[in-house]
Structures are given as C-alpha cells and as structure tokens.
Design brief:
The protein is mainly α. The chain is built from 15 helices and no strands.
C-alpha cells in the first residue's frame, strides 16, 4: 500500500459537550465569586482570621498547584536533557498543563492577598528581601511562568506560520508577523535547552522553598510533619508526582477527545516512578525514625491516620502497582496508580498547610466558607476549559488540533494519495497508532 499514513489530519472535535458544559457552569460560578472577592475583600468571602492567615486557597490553589505542575519540568528534562525522544508525545501536553497550572497558581496567590493590587512590587529591586522565603518563591515562580510560555512558543509558531491573515488595515503587518514567527521558530530551536535547564533549576528552588516556608512555623505544625528536612521532602515529592500527573492528564485527555492512549510511552515512563517514590519513602520514614516520632503512627489518633493514609495510599501502594510490568501495561491500573500518587501529594500538602497546622491561639478554628470552595472549583474548571481550547486549536496532542481549512484538507488528502508527495515542513512525527481492529483486540486483552 503506497498511501501515506503519517499525515496529521486533525479531528473535528466540538468544544462543548455535556461534560464540558457542566464544567463551564462551575467555572462561571467560580468566576462570579472571584469577582465578588476582589470587589468586597477577604472578609466577605472567606473564614480566614489572624490565627489562620491562609486556608483552602493557599493549600490547594498554590501548594498543591505548584506540586502538580511539576510534570512540565520533569518531562522537559527527560526529553530535552536526557534526549529520550520516545517520550516526545507526552512533552507538549505536560508543558501545557504546567503553563496553565502555574498561571492559576499566580492567580491563586493574588486571590489570597489582602492588598493584591500591590503584588507587582516584588519586581522592584528596591523592595527585594533576599532573607524572605516568600520572596524566593515569588521570584522563582514569576520567572518560571515566563520560561514555560517561552517553551510553549514553538507550538504557537507552528500553528500560525504561513497562516497569518490579519483583518482590515492590520493586513499590512502580515509579512512582518510572518517574519517574526519564522525568526522565533528558528531561534528557539537552538536555545530551548537553555530554558529547559533554567526551568529545572527554578522549579527545584521554589518546590523546596515551599517546604522551607513551613519549617519556620515551629510550634504550629504537628511534629509528624514539622522537620528540617521538609524542603527536601517537598522537592522529592514534586519529582515523584511529576510523571504520574503526566499519566493522569494524558489518559483523561485521550478519553475526553476519544483518542487511543499513548500506551507505549506511558507504560515505559511509568518504570521510573517506583524509584522516585522509593527515594521519597526512605527519606520520609528515616526522618520520622531519627526524630523519634515514628511510634506515634500507632497511637490511633486522627492526625496519625492522615499521615498513614498519605504514605500508604500515596506512596506504598503506587510503588507496588508500578513495579509490576503487567499492571504498568494496563491503562486502568496505570491510571489508578498515577491517581493515587497525585492524591497522596495533595493530601500531604493539605496535612502540612491545614490539617497538621495549629495556631498559637488554641480557641481559633477554621472551616472554609462555601465561597472558598466555589473559587477553588472554579479555578479547576477554568484550567480544564483552557486546556481543552488550546488542545483543539494547537498541535499539542497527536492527531488532535485545529480543524484544517478546505484548501489545507485537500492538500493533505492529496498527499495521502500521492506516494511521491513530501510535506514542506514536518515539525512533529506522530507516534504509530494501532489499526482500529488491533486496538480493539488489545483493549479486550
């Protein structure tokens, strides 16, 4: 058979489905409450107090958001630095997830700040405080967000090169914009490794610094979690959750867009996860042992139960799942193991920032208001919608992207029928897909 089979012809997938419509409603509610918060302040929308200066928004929107966005720098490191090109189909979705995640981390910080309008002051050298842990986190996150957008620029260039048609009087700028896109595309290809290395360094710095922030909370954080090794534990857990988050995102996207999953790449990359989890587990158990708090796990208290759940379900059980080759090749088991790691890291951040945190005022209490839950759910829904919109309009996921014009579709169909036709630009080579019958048989097995 002489017809070309590797041409990327995007599928025509509608943006709004019954599921995405429900998500859009949640995003709308969260957006309305968010506007109310910015208009009337924290007191009108939260149950925060002087004893509890942070709550759900910092614990989930910021602490969990930063950790779960680690898939961007871990996947970029594996593909660009270690040159494992077989994982390239996972890179762009991971970068998109990280880019959206860190953008909403910044928005979450602004939402929780009383004087959010002064947030830009961190960019003024005259106001820098190098002795502040929060200053390091702010600077690293701010720079890393820009690095992520730069790493994603090749996707933007690929989407619009040769297709710039500005409306009306702006049409005179078409040639200039085209030249800028070609220059960016050619330049970024030569220096992308620099930004990958910078992203890895910045990520390691602020992932660990979030743990440092709670080291200085001596007397307020339960000894089960308060340790000088908290920065190292936060960094190791970020390493461990990066690839599972990539797996979760990839499998959910495949199911949502009705595409076959990246079976080979996902099963292969999952082999790394047990080693990362085991490194975290050794440091975690060793820290509890040498600090003399390990026996507290047997005391039967609620606080110790949270730690047992965090370690047993978020670390030990996934190690077992990912260590068995048969389970790694099963997409349901692969998703279950990855989801457990993700939930384990989420529980860890909640334990450190909320559950294990007790203010000096013993009479104080904190229960998140419904508006706090609404904003958090709204953020998550907005991220899903943005991911879906970008994935449908840019070449992020294999065999998915913008719907081709009639002329482009005709050219692609002509290429599939012409064995001698060669594409002018082939920026990405899609991974081989099994035939529908073979794929169905594999699913049944």
């Amino acid at each position: 058979m002489n017809a070309r089979t590797d041409v990327h012809i995007p599928t025509r997938t509608p943006f709004f489905t019954p599921g995405s419509s429900v998500i859009a409603a949640v995003a709308l509610l969260g957006g309305v409450v968010l506007l109310y918060r910015f208009a009337f302040g924290l007191g009108a929308t939260t149950n925060l107090s002087d004893a509890y200066p942070w709550g759900l928004w910092i614990a989930i929107d910021v602490a969990c958001g930063v950790a779960l966005a680690a898939g961007g720098f871990t996947t970029a490191f594996i593909v660009h630095i270690l040159h494992r090109e077989r994982y390239h189909p996972l890179l762009r979705p991971a970068l998109l997830t990280a880019m959206i995640g860190y953008t909403f981390v910044a928005l979450g910080v602004a939402t929780d700040l009383g004087r959010f309008w002064a947030m830009w002051h961190v960019m003024l050298p005259t106001m820098w405080q190098p002795n502040s842990v929060l200053f390091e986190v702010a600077i690293c996150v701010m720079i890393y967000v820009n690095v992520l957008y730069i790493e994603f620029l090749p996707v933007v260039c690929e989407r619009f090169m040769g297709k710039v048609h500005l409306p009306g009087p702006l049409a005179r700028l078409d040639h200039t914009v085209e030249r800028v896109l070609h220059v960016l595309d050619a330049t970024l290809g030569r220096v992308i490794t620099v930004f990958v290395v910078l992203g890895v360094v910045l990520s390691c710095m602020h992932q660990s610094s979030l743990g440092t922030l709670m080291v200085i909370a001596a007397g307020k954080l339960d000894p089960l979690w308060h340790t000088p090794l908290l920065p190292l534990l936060f960094l190791l857990s970020a390493f461990a959750v990066g690839l599972p988050m990539v797996i979760v995102e990839s499998l959910i996207a495949s199911r949502s867009f009705k595409l076959p999953p990246e079976r080979t790449a996902l099963s292969s990359i999952a082999r790394i996860i047990p080693w990362l989890l085991f490194a975290y587990l050794i440091v975690k158990i060793g820290d509890l042992f040498f600090r003399g708090v390990l026996p507290r796990l047997l005391e039967g208290s609620t606080i110790s139960a949270f730690l047992i759940a965090e370690v047993a379900f978020g670390v030990v059980l996934p190690i077992v799942i990912f260590s068995i080759p048969t389970l790694r090749r099963s997409m349901p088991w692969l998703f279950a193991g990855a989801a457990l790691v993700v939930l384990g890291v989420v529980l860890n951040r909640l334990n450190v920032f909320l559950i294990g945190y007790s203010p000096l005022d013993a009479t104080a209490s904190y229960v998140p208001a419904w508006t706090e839950f609404a904003v958090t759910a709204g953020f998550l829904a907005m991220m899903v919608l943005i991911y879906r919109a970008v994935a449908l309009n840019f070449a992020v996921i294999e065999h998915l992207g913008p719907s081709p014009s009639k002329e482009t579709a005709a050219e692609q169909l002509h290429e599939t029928k012409s064995p001698s036709a060669r594409p002018a630009i082939a920026p990405r080579q899609p991974t081989p897909r099994p035939a529908p019958a073979a794929y169905a048989n594999a699913q049944r097995r």
